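Hi team, as promised in this morning's meeting, here are the two structures we talked about. I've kept the exact order from the run log so nobody has to guess. The first one is mostly here for context; it's the second one we should focus on when we meet again. Sequence first, then the predicted structure tokens.
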Amino acid sequence: MSPPIATPRSRALGFGLRKTRQERGFGLRQLARATGVHPAELSNWELGLRVPKVEEVALLLGQLRVDVTERERLFELAEHAREPNWLEKEMPDAPAILTTLAEYERTAVSIFSWQPMVVHGLLQTPDYARAILAYGGSPAQLVEQRLRVRKIRQTAIREYRAPECSFLLGEIALRQPIGGREILLDQLRHLLELPRRLAVRIVPFGGDFHPGLNGSFAVLEYSDLPSIVFLDQHRGSAYIYDDDQVADYKSAAKTMASLALSADESRAFIEGVITELEA
């Protein structure tokens, strides 16, 4: 069984419960004892990994003596935390890890991403994405399903209230001939056609060690929730919520940004790679 995933709604409820508990001076185990809730269960609620029932939320808030306004806000979150998000409604068969990621992206105020080896999924052309998703003989139906999810995610970050995006790509991502020369060329031309607000910057190959050599990562920030880090690996993905670890990744993001070419320099760099490939 897959581990539970903290969705944006469940996480908002959990963050509100934890913040209220801490403001009232209650330790987690102290509140658990006072309400008869198992500490592990209360911890899962605060992390957004499990969603408490409305009556369970009422039990906690009664013990914490929360004011009417905040109580109603948390009740509303509890009532709606289990509802499917916008992508789940449109594609009920989509994997939970993808629908949750799409919701996190759509509700963020800013997204920073570092991808050293391949072009970020939100920037990929269909053919480039298909060449990646089809690797290993994945069933065609699954590949097309994931392509549809990727297309919806791409559309979402181009909306009026879309997050501010900063995409850093390693030079290798521009030269790795995924799908072949023509598909790569089409992908590179697509990068030049993206809206300027989807800032694409290149980190050239070479130089000393930097944190980006440890792999790709994304930092997503929100107006009313703590930031999170998303890690996407070969055999799975993970979210990081721990404040200290998130701070480390934010520091790494600043380092990577300092190593990247400017937006104009990056465009010129991409044009240069296209010229090389066309020669």
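And here is the second protein, the one for discussion:
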Amino acid sequence: MRTTIKAPATIEGIGLHKGKPARVTFLPAEGATGLRFLNPAFASPLPALLNRVSGTARGTNISDGKTTIYTVEHLLSAAAGLGIDDLDIELAGEEPPATDGSALAFAAALVRTGLLQKPGLQRKTLSIADRLEMTNGTTRCTAFPSHGVSFKLTYDYPHPLVGRQVVEFTLTPEEYLANVAPARTFGFSHEIEALKAAGLALGGSLENAIVIGEKEIIAKDGLRFPDEFARHKLLDLIGDLALAGLPLKDIRIEAERPGHASNVNFAKLLSQKAIPNND
């Protein structure tokens, strides 16, 4: 049975990369529409699908060929993590508000509106019959049939304050809301100047990101989890995989050192190898 939300919910703030005022409104969706973006610049709703991806530099961007919206992964992660199939996401601006750098505000807003099941609408899902693996340099993504949906993610970075972090979760709405959605965006202090010169992180601050310096980690109210960086990478992965357009079913995914580009490419591989499946 497909799921949407019962009522609209709006969040306002500043965009992480463009640094401009941003507003997102979640709207209930009728029919089997999937996840879609609405924007005054779009002639029609823009489906959140892999063939709409226009960039993966420091975030996942999608476009209708004329207008690009940036960093959609946290919005999609919140919807996918909660098991929402159909949702219209109305953006005022080029990107969603950064909130605190996590997906918690989005997920909490969706939960507050209440989820609505849609009887009579068939729910297609994404499953695989055999093991799949994709490797590119030090990045490796693997998937294989399993019971339920689970993830193992390894984040490994040669910095004395980061090192190797490994997280494993079975994906349920409750687990996502408590242990994945709160994990915040992070970056390294030595990258900030170059990012801003490239027109990125213009709205970044300690209100919406963790900064890893040479000798200290600067995070508002401290880290939420000892492995918060790996959890945020998992948050991103869940959002990027949602671009496959189908919820995952009976699959385990293991990712080592993933990024947005590898996430999107792995979603393409999963889509190509998916077997027909209806709930």
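Starting points for discussion:
The chain has two domains: 2-118, 132-273.
The chain is about 20% helix and 30% strand.
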